[in-house]
Design goal:
The chain is of the alpha+beta class and 364 residues long. 26% of the residues lie in helices and 42% in strands. The chain has 4 helices and 15 strands. The strands form 3 sheets. It has an 8-stranded antiparallel β-barrel with strand order 3-4-5-8-11-13-14-15. It has a two-stranded antiparallel sheet with strand order 6-7.
Length: 364
């Protein structure tokens, strides 16, 4: 009997440790672990309490050595019978669960499929948050939805100088971050399970800001957008804002693919940190454009004017994107192929150019 109790105690400890290390056991395994703990540990604790009471009585000279040995033998027999009875009633259940423990220990020594189920990574590129449901196989991680937030710096270039971001002749002032991008996109693998190529199709919102140089402001007169001197007071800040629906289509290429084997099938491990290159095209559909001016004068220290822009801006823009990333760090460049401003804009540089960094990625 002592051998049997020792075996069950060891088995319970093993199953308990296995359950703690692997939170994705099947319900029957978890239930089995709980029942083994309940029977073996609870009975052993109760038995130790009674044995401690006997030892105390002996130390207090309330019983003799012979009485102590007799009482300890009786208590051990009582708990032996109790454990036997409880195990016998669940014998078939324990045998089935034991077979499952052995099978999982042999075939799945480490549950690598679920080890990255929910993650939050904060790095130089911002926040990467993974909120996966309980995936069943690695193929489930090869497609899914993402929410992305990016901060960008928008500048404007001439047609003959597509990357002349720091053109001295530009009407726009160069600023580091003056725009943002919010996108919900669907990503899925192209080809077989080992393919390093993914496509992305999304929908979102793009907000571009531009600031005039030399304390001048944007103005629209006679159906023409231009830049003029400010004469209403002391100019504090000025911007031209363009708001768009953003529709991207992209391809992502994994440069150093890592793989995982599951049930004899080899999959690309889309949860591990890997280098990737992104290339794609996008379309922007304009929602609205506004001119923002904030200034002070003799009457008020803060006056804000907002004017809806109705001339000089194209309603549809098409462009291309290229980016590189590692884990949660992703940087990119977006170049508009069509001009932001049309012939009704008296501006030198009309083509948008953006350099951005993804601040947050949520995978679900």
């Amino acid at each position: 009997m002592k051998t049997k109790i020792a075996f069950l105690t060891a088995l319970a400890a093993c199953s308990h440790m296995h359950a703690q290390q692997n939170p994705y056991l099947s319900p029957s395994m978890k239930d089995y672990s709980r029942k083994v703990d309940s029977i073996v540990y609870a009975e052993k604790i109760n038995m130790n309490k009674e044995l401690d009471a006997i030892d105390k009585n002996f130390k207090d000279h309330k019983i003799t050595i012979d009485e102590k040995q007799k009482q300890r033998t009786e208590i051990a027999s009582k708990y032996e019978q109790a454990i036997n009875e409880k195990i016998e009633t669940r014998k078939s259940e324990f045998e089935e669960a034991t077979r499952e423990i052995v099978k999982n220990a042999v075939l799945n020594p480490k549950d690598s499929l679920h080890q990255h189920k929910n993650q939050m990574l904060l790095g130089l590129g911002g926040l990467r948050l993974t909120l996966y449901e309980d995936k069943k196989v690695p193929a489930d991680y090869l497609h899914g939805w993402q929410y992305m937030v990016a901060l960008t710096g928008t500048g404007y270039t001439a047609k003959d100088k597509p990357f002349g971001l720091f053109d001295k002749n530009s009407d726009f002032k160069n600023t580091v971050f003056n725009s943002s991008l919010f996108v919900i996109r669907y990503e899925s693998q192209l080809g077989k399970f080992q393919s390093p190529v993914f496509y992305r199709l999304g929908f979102g919102y793009r907000w571009d800001g531009g600031k005039a140089k030399y304390d001048r402001v944007f103005s629209q007169e006679n159906h023409t957008l231009g830049i003029a001197d400010f004469t209403k007071g002391n100019l504090k800040d000025t911007y031209l804002y363009n708001h768009y629906f953003h529709i991207p289509l992209e391809l992502r290429f994994v440069l150093n693919p890592k793989y995982i084997n599951h049930n004899g099938i080899r999959y690309l491990d889309n949860r591990s940190k890997q280098f990737s290159v992104t290339a794609g095209v996008y379309s922007n559909v304009r929602i609205t454009s506004t001119i923002y001016n904030r200034y002070s004068n003799d009457v008020s220290r803060r006056i804000v004017e907002r004017e809806t822009l109705s001339h000089g801006v194209n309603d549809v823009i098409v462009g291309g994107k290229i980016g590189i990333g590692y884990g949660g760090i992703n940087v990119f460049v977006q170049k508009d192929f069509t001009p932001t401003f049309n012939n009704n804009a008296n501006l030198i540089n009309k083509y948008g150019l953006q350099i951005g960094i993804e601040l947050m990625n949520v995978y679900f």
